[in-house]
Design goal:
This protein is α+β, with helices and mostly antiparallel strands and 452 residues long. The chain is built from eight helices and six strands; from the N terminus they run E-E-H-E-E-E-E-H-H-H-H-H-H-H. Helix 6 crosses helix 8 and helix 7 packs antiparallel against helix 8.
Length: 452
């Protein structure tokens, strides 16, 4: 596997960087001062390939710690070539978010679910995370990592690097193939032994066959006789079933007719009872009509009285308003004259003597008293009219309530009458239907039924 380049964003101390390894040839070494980011490059490679790095386990726990503190995610794009193919891996991890992985072979997407895509990558590179650190990406101070492993662990590393596990696969396949061939040979032997036994029994089978031929002739004759007898039985059975169906049909019709007749008779009885109840309810129809007319007549009479009295009251109130206005005018004249001290009238020019002034004041006062007396008389009459109006309005209210109640009762009698008319028509139809059912039942009863 030859890495061509690695492009990184937001990973550890790298905000955005691209490292072109193909410029360094097939073998390269990363050198630099402590803290320069050498180990971070190794982490970039292992995270891209395996989703693992220092402090990150095989479940991906700790990946989020690799995100640069100024970024919300990291993204690593690793491109390498192997066996004349170009492979591209893109891995992203969002802070408090998802872990994404894309895989391309010669720019054709191989991306599926995260675990399935990771398995495809491992199948291509044929090494795991630990083997990568032992052979491919040796970190600072890790040169003795491989030699410190146990013999079986070193063997596993060699098997992955040199692809030795294919011989184990071939060995397993060979053993399975040998077992399958052995099982097939054993089955063939069993079949051969079975066929040998069959050949040995040929003479016996031939004798049995000859005897069977004679028995077959006899059996065929018996079968023919039985078939003829069976045909007769089938015919009789079909006739019996047809007859039974007819009998069942007639009996079912008869039972249904009995039920329909019972239902119809019950319905007629119920309707007759309802008819009697409705007839009782509509007896009062004429009386209610008379009551409604009498009440309406009283309402109309009271309404006329109410209109007449209201008109009279309105006329008196108008008169009082006029008289009140005139009284105010006389009062104004009286006050003006009482306070008037000049020797002559400013209007006519005549001299105003004290006797003339007093005489005219008395006339004005008498006229004002006359207006006041008439106003008071009118008020007494208006009061009496108000009492009459109150009495008539009370009587009108009572008559209207009485009319409404009587109208409700009358409407109920009309509904009962309508319902009764419909009920009479329904009873006629029900009686006719009952007669038809009884006639149909009579005809059905005359059918003779054979015992089956």
């Amino acid at each position: 596997m030859l890495i061509q380049y690695i492009k990184v964003k937001g990973f550890l101390s790298y905000i955005e960087e691209i490292i072109e390894f193909e410029k360094f040839g097939n073998v390269w070494v990363i050198v630099g001062e402590n803290g320069a980011g050498k180990s971070s490059i190794i982490d970039m490679i292992t995270v891209a390939l395996f989703g693992r790095a220092r402090g990150v386990d095989d479940r991906g726990s700790g990946l989020e710690d690799l995100i640069n503190k100024n970024c919300d995610y990291f993204e690593i794009e690793l491109v390498f070539s192997m066996n004349d193919h170009t492979y591209r891996i893109i891995r992203r991890k969002f802070r408090n978010g998802p872990h994404e992985l894309e895989f391309y072979i010669d720019d054709l997407s191989q991306t599926e679910k995260l675990s399935e895509t990771q398995l495809k990558i491992l199948n291509v590179i044929k090494i795991n995370f630990d083997t990568c650190l032992d052979t491919f990406c040796v970190g600072q101070g890790q040169s003795a990592r491989f030699m410190e492993k146990k013999p079986n662990e070193r063997k596993e590393v060699f098997s992955q690097v040199l692809n030795l596990d294919k011989y184990e696969v071939l060995e397993k396949y060979t053993k399975e193939l040998r077992k399958a061939i052995k099982d097939q040979i054993e089955k063939i032997d069993v079949k051969l032994n079975f066929l040998k036994d069959k050949i040995t029994l040929k003479v016996k089978y031939q004798s049995d066959y000859n005897e069977s031929k004679q028995e077959i002739v006899i059996v065929k004759k018996n079968i023919k006789t039985d078939e003829e007898e069976l045909e007769k039985i089938i015919i009789e059975k079909n006739q019996y079933e047809q007859l039974k169906q007819q009998v069942d049909l007639i009996l079912n019709q008869r039972n249904n007719l009995i039920k329909k007749i019972e239902i119809q008779e019950t319905s007629i009885k119920t309707d007759i009872i309802l008819q009697k109840n409705l007839e009782v309810q509509i007896v009062d129809k004429l009386t209610l009509e008379i009551q409604l007319k009498d009440i309406q007549k009283e309402i109309d009479t009271d309404q006329l009285k109410l209109t007449k009295i209201s008109s009279e009251k309105s006329s008196l109130e108008t008169t009082n308003n006029i008289l009140t206005t005139q009284g105010r005018e006389y009062k104004t004249k009286f006050l003006n004259l009482q306070n008037y001290n000049q020797g002559s009238c400013s209007f006519c020019g005549n001299e105003i003597t004290e006797n003339y002034k007093q005489q005219y004041l008395n006339e004005l006062k008498a006229e004002a008293l006359k207006f006041a007396s008439e106003i008071n008389n009118n008020k007494l009459i208006i009061q009496q009219l108000d009492e009459q109006l109150t009495k008539i309005n009370n009587q009108l209210s009572q008559n209207r309530i009485k009319s409404k109640d009587t109208q409700i009762k009358y409407n109920k009698t009309l509904q009962s009458e309508t319902q009764l008319n419909g009920l009479k028509i329904r009873l006629i139809d029900s009686q006719k239907n009952l007669e038809d059912l009884k006639e149909e039942y009579k005809q059905n009863s005359q059918v003779e039924i054979e015992k089956v």
